[in-house]
Hints:
three-stranded parallel β-sheet; DNA-binding; methylated-DNA-[protein]-cysteine S-methyltransferase activity; Arc Repressor Mutant, subunit A; EC 2.1.1.63; single chain; three-stranded antiparallel β-sheet; methylated-DNA--[protein]-cysteine S-methyltransferase; DNA damage; alpha/beta; 2 domains
Amino acid sequence: MFARTKQESVLIVKVSSFWAEAVSDGRKLLRICLSYRKDDFQSIYKLNFEEKKRLPPLLQRLKCDLIIYGSGSKVDFSCYPLQTEGYSSFTRRVWAEVREIPYGRFCSYKWIAQRLNNRGYRAIGKALSINPFPIIIPCHRVIREDGSLGGYSQGMRIKKELLRIEGVLPLLPQAKMI
DNA sequence: AACTGTCGCGAAG
DNA sequence: CTTCGCGACAGTT
């Protein structure tokens, strides 16, 4: 009995000044990683093999969207199918809530908590820290209540860059809270 | 039991 | 006004 290995496709694309790696099973996205160094990606060894094949439509579309996004235009990622099985219902509720934050807006961890009738603010951060779909689930739009930026699993440099791309960063005065 | 991508308060500079 | 320490909070490992 040989375990049937799932057919996974990998997209690696430059977005603004960093790289994005997206993995899909053809139907859904499985994960996304962001890095300034292309060879950080675990699947990099597959690239020579993969890039000869046509990308599945889902990754084609994502590639276009990411490039457009990186160029500073508004992109709606809310319809991408994501593989979220295996995560707790709380975690998924947090992600669903964060997905509602529009492009170019932001809110606080507390604000998300309140929408879930919850005061475990730190649990919100925990749920976001394991977000496998940065950009698609826009956890970079969640910052601290006092206006400081908080953390980011992909590195603060990228969080800042994403907010800058969306015109939020020089931050506050005229930036719109959600 | 020990962690968090937090918050808000009080105390001190 | 700004920073710092600390306890409370809820969920996960």
